[in-house]
Write a structure and sequence with these properties.
- Helix content is about 50%, strand content about 15%.
- With about 250 residues, the protein is of the alpha/beta class.
- It folds into two domains: about 10-110, ATPase, nucleotide binding domain (Nucleotidyltransferase, domain 5, 2-Layer Sandwich), CATH 3.30.420.40; about 120-249.
- The chain has a five-stranded mixed sheet. A two-stranded antiparallel sheet has the order 6-7.
- Helix 4 (about 120-150) packs antiparallel against helix 5 and helix 4 (about 120-150) packs antiparallel against helix 7.
- It is elongated, with a radius of gyration of 25 Å.
Length: about 250
């Protein structure tokens, strides 16, 4: 955005019910703001009808990853604004129109602090990785619960499935945990097969410096085992792995 002057500066505050749109032009600092029912088709028409170059900013929300690819073709540039790093957004009264108006002022002044967003190419990979991370966290929690239960009952924490406990209640909980861990193992294998397919689909992930990053990615997905058999996730987080891969692509 540096040293580039656009014909239109647009900011959108999107919610399920309403969308607030604020706009400024290169010739005027007057802000035109409207608040209308949320409609992605109408929004695309609005952007398409604006003549000249356009830059758009959207505040980071749960809907942003969906809006980003939907609107990318209708403007020259999209910036995703980090609300935590843009203090103007937290000052004064807050409504959708006010937020959009503040956002467009930041945009034209070149003061928007961005949040990284991936393109369509790696969006699916990112979602699969995120789902896998959630699954691994759940699996680690289940294994820790099983380990603690067995130790509390005087058994070895790493004892295989089929252990018999004296208490009927403890035995019931153990069998429930074993079924959940079995289901977790099956789902985990499904994710790993999907990763193999994605590596074949995107061979550039395995080329050059990305080979090291991909290895780090798969390493950070695999739980490690400490000396007392307590399962913990590796310290390299998935978010860091993903950002490294994205930055080097």
């Amino acid at each position: 955005m540096k040293d580039i002057i656009y014909d239109h500066y647009i900011a959108i505050d999107w919610s399920i019910i309403n969308m607030a749109i604020a706009r400024m032009t290169k010739k005027s600092n007057k802000i035109t703001a409207i608040n209308v029912p949320s409609d992605i088709v109408e929004l695309k028409v609005y952007l398409k009808n604006l003549r000249g170059t356009k830059i758009l900013t959207i505040e980071e929300t749960t809907a942003t990853q969906w809006l980003y690819p939907e609107l990318r073709e209708y403007v020259d540039k999209i910036l995703i604004c980090d609300p935590l790093r843009n203090r103007l957004l937290s000052e004064g009264p807050k409504t959708d129109k006010i937020d959009a108006s503040k956002l467009v002022q930041l945009l034209k002044a070149n003061l928007v602090k961005e949040v990284y967003h991936s393109t369509d190419k790696f969006l699916y990979l990112r979602r699969v990785i995120s789902g896998y991370e959630d699954l691994v966290k759940a699996g680690v929690r289940l294994k820790n619960q099983r380990y603690s239960l067995l130790r509390a009952c005087g058994k070895k924490g790493d004892k295989d499935k089929g252990s018999e406990l004296e208490s009927q209640g403890d035995q019931f909980v153990l069998e429930c945990l074993d079924r959940q861990i079995e289901a977790y193992t099956k789902e985990k294998k499904g994710y790993e097969e999907e990763f193999k397919m994605l590596v074949r689909k995107y061979p550039e992930i395995m080329k050059g410096s990305n080979l090291r990053l991909t290895h780090a990615l798969f390493s950070c997905l695999t739980p490690s085992v400490t000396q007392n058999n307590r399962h913990k996730k590796a310290p390299l987080t998935l978010a860091r792995c993903w950002q490294q891969i994205a930055d080097s692509s």
